[in-house]
Predict the 3D structure of the following.
Amino acid sequence: MSLTRLLVATGNAGKLREYREMMSDLPVEWLTLKDVGLYGMDVEETGDTFVANALLKAQAYSQASGLPTLADDSGIAVDALNGAPGVYSARYAPTEAECRTKLLGAVAEVPTALRTARFVCLIALVVPDVVTMYTEGRVEGAISYEERGTNGFGYDPIFLLPDGRTMAELSSEEKNSISHRGRALKKLQPFVECLVRNA
Ligand code: IMP
């Protein structure tokens, strides 16, 4: 039996690794942008919400590939900064390390109780001519005072969980089981299984 092919449309190496880890059990052939020759294709994230940008990316890459396509838009929202950097998390500074340094600086004067923040992930799934849908996952935490941990990517070393560890101090299994991306993907799983059954 041939496997259902599904494109995971992200150029972000950290996201891609987590998708690979989380989806290895599903009976699907997961393809990357590289696999389908679309790695250089840029889709401008012109939306001002996570949903809008996730849909933009999934629609553009599914149209270009003709394949069922999954794309995520995600980021960190800090309450003391009125939700910033939010949808601009990837563009907050030129590199991931500079993003973390800038965010730590932006909340340097904010007291512990007001440093609350969350990671948000919107996953959009587009099956050409069949369905367009999305799911959302969130994880609540706070911004730390310094970087800790070496796992994960992006803002993980400065995202404090209620147990006192940063997201970058979790193993990948632990992160995937509680993360915004893990939660959004778990909600999407029954629909992917349905896609496989009806292929
Ligand atoms: P996007 O490609 O526009 O969705 O960018 C998302 C950005 O949000 C990433 O480049 C990271 O900076 C940040 N981000 C999203 N998910 C995570 C995560 O799981 N850990 C740490 N940072 C994340």
